[in-house]
From TrEMBL:
The lineage of its organism: Eukaryota, Viridiplantae, Streptophyta, Embryophyta, Tracheophyta. The keyword Oxidoreductase applies. The gene is ga26238. This is Uncharacterized protein. It comes from Eleusine coracana subsp. coracana. The keyword Repeat does not apply. Keywords: NADP, Oxidoreductase. Pfam families: adh_short.
Length: 140
């Protein structure tokens, strides 16, 4: 019965597991599944960076998350543009001191992340491109 009682617990509720000290990149994090993912990871204690093609929408979400006390940063990025992907990865590397634990890409195909793999080679560990939720333990 304990499992039933904790099922559906509120985001960040006591008794849930924690991600304190972990870093996450969530692409397309300003709406839908991406937004829910950002909020869940941040509520569990992760430091999250997200990106969006829409600057105004990103700014609005960042204000909302700051008001909730979430550690979320963001940048404007169109992942279909190689230069913007590379800039995003450099920014994330700088922001997180070269360590990325979680990569979530809910709204895009896996193809941009093939470029990511080429940039960082074997340091990515076991990556399953089919599910597009990656726990990396990356240092770059």
């Amino acid at each position: 019965m304990a499992a039933a009682e904790t099922f559906g617990a509120a985001i960040g509720a006591p008794g849930r597991w924690a991600l304190h000290g972990k870093t996450a990149l969530v692409t397309g994090g300003t709406r839908g599944i991406g937004r829910a993912t950002v909020e869940e990871l941040a509520a569990l204690g992760a430091t999250v960076h997200t990106c969006s093609r829409k600057e105004a929408e990103l700014a609005e979400r960042l204000k909302e998350w700051e008001a909730k006390g979430f550690l979320v940063t963001g940048s404007v990025c169109d992942l279909s543009v190689r230069d913007q992907r590379e800039r995003l990865l450099r920014e994330v590397a700088d922001r997180f001191g070269g360590k990325l634990n979680i990569l979530v890409s809910p709204n895009y195909s896996s193809l941009p992340w093939l470029h990511f793999m080429n940039m960082f080679g074997n340091r990515m560990g076991n990556l399953n491109l089919g599910i597009r939720v990656y726990e990396l333990g990356l240092e770059f």
